[in-house]
Structures are given as C-alpha cells and as structure tokens.
Write a structure and sequence with these properties.
- The chain has 294 residues and is mainly alpha-helical.
- It has 2 domains: 68 residues; 192 residues, f41 fragment of flagellin, N-terminal domain.
- The strands form 2 sheets. A two-stranded antiparallel ribbon has the order 1-2. Strands 3-4 form a two-stranded antiparallel ribbon.
- Helix 2 packs antiparallel against helix 3 and helix 5 packs antiparallel against helix 6.
- The two termini are 13 Å apart.
C-alpha cells in the first residue's frame, strides 16, 4: 500500500508541476504579448523576428532622415522663392530703365534700389540654418557661401560637396543646393555693372545688361526646379518607408505577437486541468489517509 501511495503522490506531483508550468508560461506570454518567452523555443522564428525588428529600426532611421531632409529643403525653398522674387524686381527695373525716356535722376533712383537688391541676394546666398550652418556652401557649412572683398568683388567660398542622406537600404539622395547653382561671381559683377551704367545714364549699357539679368533669372528658376524635384523624391520615399514599415509590422504581428484569444482559451483549458488534478489529488489523498487510520 505504501509503495502504491508513493507512486500516486509522485505521478500526481509531476502532472501538477507540468500543468502549473504551462499555466505560468501562458500567463507570462499574456503579460508580454509575445508568442515566445525565450529564443530557444523556436530559434528559426526568433532569428526571423530579430531580422524584422532590425529592419523596422532601419526604417525608423530612414524616416528621421527624410524628416531632416524635408526641413532642409523647406528652408531652401523659402530662400529660393525670395531670390526669385528679388530677381523679378531687378528685371522689372532693368526693363523700365532701358527706356531713354527716363532721366538721369530716375535712373539714379533705380540704381540705388538695384544695389540694395543685389546686396540682399548676397545676404540670402549666405543663409544659415537653425544650427548656424551655411546651407549653400556644400560641405564647408562653417563658412559663408560667398564672400565680398574690400573692392566689392564677390567670389564663391564653399566647396562642391553634396549632402547625401540614406533613405533606404539601397538609395541615397543628395539634398543640398550649391552656391554656384544659384549665382556665379560674374552674376554679381553683372549687377554691379548694371548699377554703374544706370548711374552714368548709359542706356545702351542698361539694355545690354538686360540679357545678363535674364540669364541670372533663368539659373534661379532652374535651381528652384531642381530643388522641387528633390522635394518630390523625398516625399515619394516617405511613402515607400511608411508602406515598408506597415508590411514589417504585419509580419511581426504574425510571427511575434500573441494571439490573445487563442492564449486565453489555452489558459482556461490548462487551468481547468490543473484544478481537476488538484481536486483528484486531494480526494485520493484523503481516502489513502482514512484507509491508513483504519
């Protein structure tokens, strides 16, 4: 009788321990929301989940890069719009002053305005971002894009480096506009010559300068178009990143996230089994003790 009773206790204890372990495991999974508590449960699936998590993290980095690029391009856009507006005014004034019906004083007034507009173009070409970096200097962001010497001669002071950002595992986009994309030293010289021609009442010279003014306008328009193209590429890539993150999330839900409905059903089943074992064990144990007393 004692051997039989010992066996009964041993078998039931093992069964309850196993069932209690299952219940505890399911409860832990419900708490974590994950299908697996340890990678050793399914190494292949664990490796896949790790790769998916790393891929999602890379997409988050690319998303931040896109945000930074969009901020940069938005700043460039505002500056280029101001430059274009200024050059439109310069063109308007040059056309107006090309007429010989204007007198010396009229052309002198226009010369003063064009000189101020020329100086504002130089200031805008040396725009800095919120961090103090010069946005049109290439990779020499600590230096002004254009400098002016004591004689008023302007020269490009940056380099020709392109700021490239990674927007996917296989793609990078150059986002910055270079100073020479906007102006050349000759452009500022042409504006200075126009001012001098106006002040000397040189109508022929003003009419000749109109062609150079139009060239400056064309370059700015082309630069703005190129910038807008980069903005469109960034926005398109943002959509790709969002779609990729969505697909990764769907895969992670399938491979990693716990099916709560299924887990609760399993927990209920194992809990009932555990209660039945405990009740059976208690009942048989009481009978065994009673028989032993008799």
């Amino acid at each position: 009788m004692r051997v039989s009773t010992n066996q009964f206790y041993l078998v039931n204890a093992e069964q309850m321990q196993t069932t209690q372990g299952k219940v505890a495991e399911i409860q832990a999974k419900l708490g974590s929301g994950k299908q697996m508590l340890h990678p050793s449960e399914d190494p292949g699936k664990a490796n896949l989940i790790s790769e998916l998590a790393n891929a999602k993290e890379r997409q988050n980095v690319y998303s931040k890069n896109v945000d930074a690029a969009e901020t940069r391009l938005t700043a460039e856009s505002a500056v280029l719009e101001s430059m274009t507006s200024i050059m439109q005014r310069v063109t308007q004034l040059t056309v107006q002053s090309s007429s010989d019906t204007l007198g010396v004083s009229d052309r002198d007034v226009i010369a003063t305005e064009i000189k101020a507009l020329r100086d504002e173009l130089l200031n805008l070409s040396n725009t800095q971002d919120l961090g103090g970096s010069y946005i049109f200097s290439g990779n020499k962001t600590g230096s002004p894009a254009f400098i002016e010497d004591a004689n008023g001669a302007v020269s490009y002071n940056g380099d020709y480096g392109r700021l490239e950002i990674n927007v996917s595992d296989v793609r990078s986009i150059a986002i910055n506009t270079l100073g020479p994309d906007l102006f050349s030293a000759a452009d500022f010289t042409a504006l200075d010559d126009l001012v001098a021609e106006l002040r000397s009442n040189d109508g022929d010279g003003v009419r000749t300068s109109l062609g150079k003014v139009n060239d400056i306008n064309d370059r700015l328009i082309n630069s703005y178009g190129a910038m807008a193209g980069r903005m469109a590429a960034i926005e398109s890539q943002r959509n790709v990143i969002d779609e990729t993150k969505l697909r990764i999330d769907e895969l992670l839900i399938r491979e990693d996230d716990l099916d709560y409905s299924e887990a609760v059903t399993e927990l209920t089943k194992e809990s009932v089994a555990l209660q039945a074992l405990q009740a059976s064990f208690a009942k048989v144990a009481q009978l065994s003790l009673f028989n032993f007393i008799r």
